Amino acid sequence: MGVTQPAVQFSDQFLKMIPSLFSSLEMFVEGTLAVTLTILWVLLLTLYLARPYVVRTLQKFSLRVGADLWWLIYVGLRDLILAAVFVLGLLYFLPDVLGMLPLPVTGPLAEALLFAALVMKLTRDADNDPNAFSLVSTLLGTGAVLYLTPFILAEKLGGFAGTRFDWLVTTVFPISGSTASGLALTCWGAATLAAIILGVVAVIYTLRLARPYEQES
Amino acid sequence: MDAYGKVIQAFVEEARGWTVLTVAALMPTLWTLTLMLALARPYMLRTLRKCTVRFGADVWWLSYVLMRDGLMIVTLAAGFIFLLPHPAFIVEGEELSLPLFGPLATLFLFWALTVKLTEDPDDDPAAYRRMISLLTIGGALYFVSMVFGSEAGNQDWLKPVNEFLATGSNPAWAHAITTIALVGFAATGAYIFARVLNGIRRGGLVEQAGGGSGRHAHAGMTGH
Question: What pLDDT, in 10s, does the model give residues A55-68?
């Protein structure tokens, strides 16, 4: 009997801990994704800005197969990272996640700029048109700044509350009726609206190109 | 059941709910990639035309088609989780909050795949438009009910919207939508089955597969 009683007490306590264990696990996964995104943003910018080097190397190939493969691997890798950053960054469109974790407050805006860069790549030839390339690079650069600045200033340097940069974190100063801050929800609203508009533009553009008897450009 | 049994049971039930929610959390990723790759066709064609040898062009096109179609199938397979009866109550005594229109989104994806199976969206612009339209409707249904419903439960200012759009707080609609989607799946599955069998009976396996036109997969709308 002396052994059973503590076991019952332990199991009752453990039963209460189980839900918080799984919600902590969820927070851990989402927090890890947010940190991984900083690395991926840097990698994406690096690959985008490496274009002159890649083109210079391309011109050194004496076989056309080698040149084609070199270019396709570069484009494939660059676009894969671009897609990965966009897809992992989708967590910034979820209001509950913004209220649950101390994330960069301008994360949703960075995600919207990335979406704009994707739509720009779809509608214009950013690999041949210098203006389009500049625009895409500017969108990506601004997105990276918007993502990395609050992350470094507020999360890594300043802690989560009580510093002059704490307003850059999504969970500080939550508005009533929400777990996320007013600034975070404003950024979320603007980014969601932009994403809806950009999505509609992408769909209409693709559907218009697929009109019968019309060639894609 | 002894005390340790109760702990194990509670742990397993919580883990079940967590697994379902994790698959549901992966769905936005899969839906986004599916939509991105389907809509990226003009960009892929533009890059394809820059290839100077056919080997590179074929590698690029095949990689694109393989990823695009593979992702559509994986998204459909993962989307079946929304078609399980009563997904909102998988954890005893605790409601799971999933996107209300998840089952309908999966049904639209199934219809888009049906268009790919029964027509040739890579060569027929009208079929391509139909497929993209179905995919877009499915994606919109999924994302609206996820962003404003199941993933906004802690936002009181969105309460009327998120209570309607999440299965846990709207079980009546959730069950009705799941039933409609199940019936739609069964009907579409039966249609595909009958069509494939009829095609094989009429024309044999080669004609059913398109008479080998797949060799010129990117010769129609692609102009390659």
Answer: 888 888 888 888 88
Query: Do A125 and B46 lie within an 8 Å CB cutoff?
Result: yes
Assess B3–A contact: CB distance below 8 Å, yes or no. Answer: yes
Q: Which residues of B touch A11 (CB under 8 A)?
A: 3-4, 6-7
Q: What is the ipTM of this complex?
A: 0.76
- Residue of chain B whose alpha carbon sits nearest to that of A89: B29
Cβ contact, residue pair B129, A207, below 8 Å: yes
Report pTM: 0.81
Which residues of chain A neighbour B55 with C-beta distances below 8 Å? 65, 68
Which residues are B91's β-sheet partners? B94
* Contact call for residues B97 and B170 (beta carbons, < 8 A): no
- Rounded Cα distance between B71 and A42, Å, is 27
Tokens representing B202?
Answer: 């009429």
Instruction: List CB contacts (< 8 A) between B219 and chain A.
Output: none
Q: In this structure, are residues A91 and A33 in contact, taking their beta carbons and an 8 Å threshold?
A: yes
Instruction: Determine whether the interchain pair B221/A25 forms a contact, defined as Cβ–Cβ distance below 8 Å.
Output: no
B110 with B116: CB under 8 angstroms?
no
The model's pLDDT over B116-146, given as tens digits with 9 standing for 90+, comes to 998 888 888 899 999 999 999 999 999 999 9
Contacts 24+ apart (CB under 8 A), A66-75: A67/B52, A68/B51, A68/B52, A68/B53, A68/B55, A68/B56, A68/B57, A69/B56, A69/B59, A71/B50, A71/B56, A72/B47, A72/B51, A72/B56, A72/B59, A72/B60, A74/A47, A75/A127, A75/B47
pLDDT tens, residue by residue, A82-91? 999 999 999 9
Give the phi and the psi of residue B19 in degrees, each rounded to 5. -65, -45
For chain B, which residues make up each domain, given as ranges?
3-216
Mutate to test the interface with A, among B7, B59, B156 (most CBs of A within 10 A): B7
Judged by a CB distance cut-off of 8 A, whether residue A204 touches chain B is: no
